[in-house]
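User: Predict RNA-binding S4 domain-containing protein's structure from this.
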Amino acid sequence: MRDVPIDGDMIRLGQFLKLADLIETGGEAKILIASGDVTVNGEVDLRRGRQLHPGDVVEVLGRTARVVAE
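Assistant:
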């Protein structure tokens, strides 16, 4: 698992996937989230705009990243 620092106290799921290099494009994020291939804290989340906070763990296609405060 990789720790990925964010500015502020919140980031949206779609933005975090790209920041963490879990995906390459926003379009890829949209597809993977809509198809149920993304989990947040172990649960599938279909909302690209889901708010993530430090401590949240995101997994996509077997790759995992944790949100941490900068």
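The longest strand covers residues 63-69.
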